[in-house]
Design a protein that fits this description.
rod-shaped; mainly beta
């Protein structure tokens, strides 16, 4: 034997309510009945994430609000617990957020929000994340969808990297010139790559130098491998020569270059000796005396195409200009070999 009583859904999130059913058997005095039945109407609340399950914010955002919404504004305050679990983010990335904790959806409101302050740490780093997990401890409350939301913090910090100086001079016989990217401004917590290229000037790759490093990997310790250049000692007398090495960051737009070009001057160390005659004898009957000389080492052409020259002038001994020989003051080109 059963009886049916219709429950009316008033579409209100309200405290649990109850009513009683009194049982009376007026003509069955010998039947013992429970005098009353208490029927509790449990509140039915559907809770959902107002932001969705994934939210991406910039590190410069300052604050992110994570909100829960209910299907019907409650007639009394609804308290919902939460906790935070860290992925790649850690406690230094968010501030002033006690956890675990609770948020409240107050009377006649549809939303309850948790405000999380994002800490801008001025460190160049990867995108980091943490998750807020909500805990329902309310009778009659259910989730409509997921009960956690992951917050992704996109880094907005910047740093610069470059050579310590814009110019440097090295001796041609130095063999190896080595430099590191000392000029790093800003904190870096990611590995990144710097592309290094050489541009010919008056010095030419393969003839005057060889770039040994085509890229450098900069770890967060800021102790990058050296950029090495082999300087070729060519035993040729020449003018000082220059070339340029340039760098660029190739996989991180938040790291830029400041002193991105280093001009290297190769100071020539070679010398050539002109072997001119110390003395010579010539019969008076000869009309011409020819004095020859040659450099002891190869001499390279000047960059402007002009010749190296040797000035010479006759000086009287006990022979007299105009009487014993024809004096001269002139210039001759030095052979380049």
């Amino acid at each position: 034997m059963c009886v049916n009583i219709t429950i009316l859904d008033d579409n209100a999130a309200e405290p649990d309510e109850y009513f009683m059913i009194n049982w009376v058997a007026p003509n069955a005095s010998n039947v013992i009945i429970t005098p009353a039945t208490i029927v509790t109407i449990e509140r039915q609340i559907e809770v959902s994430l107002a932001n969705g399950t994934d939210v991406t914010v910039s590190e410069e955002t300052d604050m992110v609000r994570v909100c829960l919404q209910v299907n019907t504004p409650p007639l009394s305050t609804v308290e919902i617990g939460y906790n935070i679990t860290f992925g790649t983010a850690d406690t230094s990335d968010i501030i002033r957020v006690p956890y675990p904790g609770t948020i409240n959806i107050t009377t006649n409101e549809s939303y309850g929000c948790l405000s999380i302050v994002i800490n801008s740490d001025s460190i160049v780093e990867h995108t980091e994340n943490f998750t807020v997990v909500f805990i329902l401890n309310i009778n009659g409350a259910t989730y409509s969808g997921d009960n956690d939301i992951t917050i992704y913090i996109e880094d907005s910090s910047a740093a610069t990297v470059g050579f310590e100086n814009a110019t440097v001079s090295v001796q041609e016989n130095v063999d190896i010139y080595s430099t590191t990217l000392e000029n790093v401004i800003g904190m870096v917590d990611v590995d990144f790559y710097v592309s290094v290229m050489a541009k010919n000037g008056s010095a030419v790759a393969g003839s005057d130098f060889i770039l040994n490093s085509t890229y450098a990997m900069i770890p967060w310790t800021l102790s990058p491998p050296a950029i090495r250049v082999s300087i070729i000692d060519d035993n040729i007398v020449e003018q000082d020569e220059t070339f340029v090495i340039t760098l660029s960051v190739i996989n991180n737009i938040r790291i830029t270059t400041n002193i991105s070009e280093l001009e290297i001057t190769i100071v020539d160390n070679d010398r050539s000796v002109l072997s001119t005659p110390y003395s010579t004898e010539i019969p008076e009957s000869n009309s011409i005396v020819q004095l020859c000389f040659s450099p002891s080492a190869q001499i390279a052409p000047k960059s402007d195409g002009s010749d190296y020259t040797l000035n010479y002038t006759t000086v009287n001994g006990n022979a007299t200009d105009g009487q014993d020989f024809m004096g001269v003051s002139a210039t001759v080109s030095i052979p380049l070999l």
